[in-house]
Amino acid sequence: METTGTVRRRTAERKHDTLARLAAERDVWVSTAHPEHGPHQVPLWFLWDGRAVWMCTNAASATARNVRAEPRVRLALPHTFDVALLQGEAECFPDREVPEGAADAFTGKFGWDPRGEAGSFLYVRVVPRTVRAWRGEHELRGRVIMRDGTWLE
């Protein structure tokens, strides 16, 4: 990450930087909520396939329980000086029903295949509907770079 001082990036540059981070980074903070149990936040490995974020978690985890009850999630890339927040709805795939291409790409990135584990895992796919990106207070204006699933220019 390069800092830009007080020079505010244009939307196209924020989009480019965010897409580069989605392709390169390994971890994302996943925020979920359950009507009875409240909010939950956890870091998970993720894969960006060019359109959606793919994650995998134990099928009995709080994250899995929450997204089944309330699919709306917020994802955050882990850097407070280069904020990238994605919002969308989670779509769940049991490890035996996940699209093979997504599971193979996840395995290729991390060297771990949950489908071969003894326990049961859940793949979670999130297609962003809203993306916000900013570096510092001077970039708060114009931080929305995707709205209703469409990248802004």
Automatic annotation (TrEMBL):
Gene3D superfamilies: Electron Transport, Fmn-binding Protein, Chain A
Start and end residues of each Pyridoxamine 5'-phosphate oxidase N-terminal domain: 20-134
TM annotation in the entry: none
Oxidoreductase recorded as keyword: yes
GO cellular component, one term: cytosol
Taxonomy of the source species: Bacteria, Bacillati, Actinomycetota, Actinomycetes, Kitasatosporales
Keyword Ligase attributed: no
Protein name as it appears in the record: Pyridoxamine 5'-phosphate oxidase
Single GO MF annotation: coenzyme F420 binding
A Pfam family annotated for this UniProt entry: PNPOx_N
InterPro entries associated with the record: F420H2_bilvrd_red/Heme_oxyg (IPR052019), Pyridox_Oxase_N (IPR011576), Split_barrel_FMN-bd (IPR012349)
Superkingdom of this protein's organism: Bacteria
Species annotation: Streptomyces phaeolivaceus
Key words of the record: Oxidoreductase
